[in-house]
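seq as requested:
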Amino acid sequence: MVAPKPADQLTEMEGLVLALLHRDGPLTAYEIKEVFRKSPSAFWSGSAGAVYPLVKRLEKRDILSSTDVSETRRPRREFTLTERGEQLMLAWLSDVERAVDPGYDPLRTRMQFAGMLEDQQREALFDAIADRIPSPASPAPGVGTEDLHRLWLEARRDWFSRFRAIFRR
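struct tokens:
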């Protein structure tokens, strides 16, 4: 049985939304959704069905506040962090135990069972995976999201290459 999380503990998606608001200033739910949609990871759900209820929940918990910035008949609200939201975001950002948790990785999950495949099947799978892990893009000037993603891809390709070598011994 999973222990319930404390009321002030944020999910990873909640923490990410708060960090985005802290870094980028007031954002609408649509603008937040677009950040998730543009993410290279399919892990983050940028659907309106995920983001819009999330910001409403955070507002009810006094973690976010919103302001009506509608200029047409279509409603438009910008969200900002409350003082409590700022504190919770910093606690989330500084949570070492959760930061170093290996988290969900579908590749790592499957590789635990790679030995169950016949050698030829496993090599075919490994070839297909090696071809599909994107090559890191050239670094852009400065340190930003692109740099973090590039470094992560380099590490993932290296990890997979080293993991594959285990089966070639």
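The radius of gyration is 20 Å.
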